[in-house]
Amino acid sequence: MMSKIALCADSQCLNDPATLGLKGERILDQTWIVPFADALIARKYLREHDVAETWVVSNDTIDGINLAAALKKDNARQAVRLFLSSPSGSKMSRCQNAGVIPICGSREFAHLYTAHKLDHAQAQKRPEFREHPFPETNDIQQLLEDRTMQNSAQVRGDSASARYEAFDAREQKPQTSEETASPVTVRRIVHDRSGQTAPLPTIDIDEIPLITNVNAPVHSKTYDARPILEGTASEAPFSQGIVSPVPPRKGFTPQASETPSSTVATVAATKKASAKQIVSQVKGAHIISVVSGSGGTGKSAIATMGALLAQKRGIKTLLLDADFQFGDLKYLLGYKETLEVGDILTHPEQIETLLKQDSWPALLSAPAKLEYSEVAEERIGELLAYLKPHFDLIVVNTGSFWSEFHLQLLEASNGVFFVIDQRPSSVRACNHALDLCARCGIATTSFSYLLNFCSKKSLLSTLDVSCALKGATVHEVKDGGAEVGELLGAGMAHKLSRVNNLFCSSMASLLEKTVFEYVKPSLDPSANSTREKSALPEKTKLRGRQKRRAACY
User: Fold this and answer.
1) Per mean pLDDT, which range of 284-288, 347-351, 360-364 is the poorest?
2) pLDDT on residue 374
3) At residue 545, does pLDDT exceed 70?
4) Helical (H) or strand (E) element with 113
């Protein structure tokens, strides 16, 4: 006796299994699969019938993870599997909390599908299975008809027996290459029923693989399920699987049994580890992420000024440009040559270069090549774990396009600056992003909402935005005028931090309330104060010349 598999998927996946890595397969024609496109019908059927397992891919009416959790709640003894096209830490944790077994990617789904297809094909060869393919209540009448036909065939002559033997021979005829359109075939799989570990076979899946090395050519669309031996992988731009030792920070003495490098190597080796789990294993800097729901809100200016003011106070600060696609903090600060994210991920010992910048905040810029951005986003937890033990404060600037990377970064941060500007669309985008955080279970208690470009002529006030955000506290960031844009555009952010500007003064008061209470200085700020005193007369002379020139006219 062989039970069926319940498959919950949307109509597109059922009609086109190529989206699941099963090109050429006809899921709707498989007798061992009970397909469902509607969540209510699936839940009603599974309450009344028993199946071997339930596979949830997606649904036309409800999200896949919600449907899987509901099916598991309806029958706790039922095995429920959820297909994850892009596994992440948050999705894995939600599956674990709901008691759902994750299926990580189309490759694993193809293995699972093929193994059950093999079981079904082997069960059909047994005599008892031919008599009782699926002995359920709905098939009782069909079973009686089959037995009646068999009894009548025995009463008839040799001609009837010959016809049935010919029919059985056609059933046992092996499939040819022309008849089999699917790349996932039963004869390609060797199923081990003894319980011993057997090497997985090679399965042809017609899909484009995820390439960690952008320079590596794609030779074939063939996946080998056997494990790759260590030392055979080619060097990628951000090599994965090789964790170099992280140099200790000056004045920082970790415990003998737990070092940052060993912790990162242990946690990063786990596929289910999220950025929060990796970063929480390492002690060190206070992480502040600057985010927004839309572009043009002034995230880069706020992140840059926050890092400059923190370093000026004596806090060893790192400014991380996590806008991995179009980050430009390098140009705002006027740095000619900086380390990139890929440099630290490939050679963590280069952190010593960042530690030499004592007068200004260290900057870790975005990858110079746009195609490296996805690799950097996937390893944000490992990157923060490398940097955290060496600094007192890490300010992370992000892009306006939200993805799984943003959610992992929010979970790993100690505080978040959510920037809003004077546009009503920016407020709506903020609420839209907060709804996403609520659905993903991300706490927003550490969020600080900043209303940028505030002035007497502003369209929105902090009270207006607070009402739109259901009573949340909103901090005001003054509009510094054209001077802010001109100095930042010229790469003179350091000079802007020394100017008595409304933007700079409001940022200083904001940091006093949100950051400086939790982060204590570890550097001597006397060097920065000496640099400021030498620069003040230059600004005074400049203003005096401007006044005298204006008086001549």
Assistant:
1) 347-351
2) 84
3) no
4) helix 105-124
Checking DSSP bridges between strand 415-420 and strand 286-292, what pairing results, if any? parallel
| Nearest CA among 473, 329, 331 for reference residue 395 | 329
Closest CA to 116 of 127, 103, 128: 103
- Domain 5-125 class, CATH top level: alpha beta
Lowest mean pLDDT among 117-121, 126-130, 412-416, 428-432: 126-130
Element spanning 129, H or E: helix 127-131
pLDDT tens for 264-278 read 444 444 434 667 777
Name the residue ranges covered by the structural domains of the chain: 5-125, 282-522
CB 426 within 8 A of CB 295: no
Predicted confidence at residue 126, as pLDDT, reads 62
- Whether the CB-CB separation of 528 and 312 falls below 8 Å is answered with yes
Question: How, if at all, do strands 474-478 and 447-454 pair?
Answer: parallel
Scanning the structure block, which residue is given the tokens 């063939």? Answer: 222
Q: How many CB atoms lie within 10 A of CB 48?
A: 7
Topology of the domain comprising 282-522: Rossmann fold (3.40.50)
One-character DSSP codes across 440-479 = TT---TTEEEEEEEE-TT-S--HHHHHHHTTS--EEEEE-
**Residue 2 · residue 120 · CB < 8 Å:** yes
Looking at residue 2, its pLDDT comes to 57
Q: Write out the two tokens for 8.
A: 């919950």
Q: How many CB atoms lie within 10 A of CB 495?
A: 15
Is it true that 5-125 and 282-522 share their CATH fold?
yes
How many alpha carbons lie under 13 Å from residue 116 in its C-beta half-sphere? 21
Average pLDDT, rounded, for the chain: 74
d(CA 212, CA 121): 37
What's the CA angle centered on 102, arms 98 and 108, to 5 degrees? 170
Which three-class secondary structure state does DSSP give residue 416? strand
Give the number of C-alpha atoms closer than 13 A to the C-alpha of residue 510, restricted to the C-beta side: 28
SS in 3 state form for 208-248?
CCCCCCCCCCCCCCEEECCCCCCCCCCCCCCCCCCCCCCCC
Does 165 score more than 80 pLDDT? no
Q: Is residue 141 classed exposed, middle or buried when 0-12, 13-18 and 19+ CB atoms within 10 A define those classes?
A: exposed
What φ, ψ does residue 546 adopt, rounded to 5°?
-65, -40
Q: What is the DSSP string of 236-295?
A: PTT-SS--PPPPPPTT----TT--HHHHHHHHHTSTT--HHHHHHTS--PEEEEEEESSS
For 191-219, write each residue's pLDDT tens digit: 333 343 334 333 343 333 333 333 333 33
How large is the average pLDDT for residues 454-459? 90
Per-residue pLDDT reduced to its tens digit, 46-78: 988 889 999 999 877 788 888 998 899 988 888
Question: In this structure, are residues 477 and 302 in contact, taking their beta carbons and an 8 Å threshold?
Answer: yes
| 193 CB-side CA count, 13 A | 4
Q: Of residues 149 and 369, which shows the higher confidence score?
A: 369
Q: What angle do CA 56, 194, 77 make, to 5 degrees?
A: 35
Residues facing 104 on adjacent strands: 84
